[in-house]
Specification:
Oligomer: single chain
Helix content: over 70%
Radius of gyration: 19 Å
Strand content: under 5%
Number of helices: 12
Order of helices and strands: HHHHHHHHHHHH
Structural class: mainly alpha
Number of strands: 0
Number of domains: 1
Largest sheet: none
Distance between the termini: 29 Å
Length: 307
């Protein structure tokens, strides 16, 4: 039976994160992308870190701060600056489907860095199907009946490659034992870098107050998307393999497409649906194959222990 805490954490990562794509779309309509992302993670990180320290949890060691800044750069600066910028032109549902390629990036890094997976013809075929789906998505029709620009689509893929690299490195780096301290510190580092880059890019010039809907969406992302979902993700990373945890990318697009269609006024067209289906098939094959490989590894380790 699944641990209730793990079930709640998976719900936050699977469902809550899927709902944040429309929130991002709403926020970047009235706020510059890096400023919005920086505000989100700086505020969420300070709240989570402050709460953990108030509870008496130990602060990171000096040597750990360098690793936390690296994690912040990979999982927030690169990842969310690309994603927030791309969602100024890419519908939230399509953005979430492109993010569904995350397991492919994690798999490649597990093969080359952690060496806990081996490539097979099934995995190669799955990667090919996923890439073809991305091509169809980029050539499909967006909400306004125009082609979705390929550069923002490529930016989203880059954002997920960066997120995958951060997730893989978290398995190798010595980070704070407290998941709340680790998550909060990473968000503070990433949010600070986003705000600095936002200022350097001139996003603060002529800045206007965001709309009420934009502020509401930002507040939702801070509380639900960061304090709840990202904290849950860091907690789960210590209890599951990166590739299996990346299965949330299989559910997020379904949630985001549905929310974008129902509440965001985003139209679902044939090219987008076909590309989405191929990406999801690719993710399903990758996750099925990698979970089978992990079971075989666990069986071999158990047999070795008994010998």
């Amino acid at each position: 039976m699944l641990d209730p805490r793990m079930a709640l954490a998976l719900f936050a990562v699977y469902i809550v994160w899927g709902s944040t794509y429309l929130a991002i779309k709403v926020v970047v309509e009235t706020m510059p992308p890096m400023l919005a992302a920086g505000a989100r993670f700086s505020i969420a990180g300070l709240l989570l870190y402050g709460w953990a320290r108030w509870r008496g949890e130990a602060a990171p060691e000096r040597r750990q701060w360098k690793r936390l800044w690296l994690q912040g750069a990979l999982m927030f600066l690169v990842c969310y600056s690309c994603l927030f910028w791309a969602e100024k032109t890419v519908p939230s549902g399509i953005a979430s489907v492109l993010v569904a390629m995350l397991p492919a990036w994690v798999l490649l890094l597990e093969v080359t860095v952690l060496k806990t997976q081996r490539l097979s013809w099934v995995l190669v075929a799955a990667l090919g199907i996923g890439l073809w789906g991305v091509v169809l998505l980029a050539g499909g029709l967006g909400a306004a009946g125009q082609a979705v620009p390929w550069i923002p689509c490529a930016a989203i893929l880059l954002s997920e490659a960066s997120w995958a690299a951060g997730s893989i490195l978290s398995k190798r780096l010595s980070l704070p034992a407290s998941h709340a301290i680790s998550a909060g510190a990473q968000m503070i580092c990433g949010g600070t870098m986003l705000l600095v880059c936002s200022a350097l890019a001139g996003e603060w010039r002529g800045l206007r107050p965001p709309s009420a809907s934009g502020m509401g969406a930002l507040l939702y992302m801070i509380v639900a998307g960061s304090l709840v979902a990202y904290n849950s993700y860091v907690w789960l990373l210590k209890r599951m393999s990166p590739t299996r945890l990346a299965s949330y990318a299989y559910v997020n697009p379904i949630v985001a497409l549905a929310i974008g269609w129902i509440w965001g006024g985003e139209r679902l067209r044939a090219g987008s649906l076909a590309g989405s289906a191929l990406v999801l098939v690719s993710v399903f094959l990758i996750l099925r194959r990698t979970s089978s490989g992990e079971r075989r590894v666990e069986q071999r380790e158990a047999e070795t222990a008994r010998a």
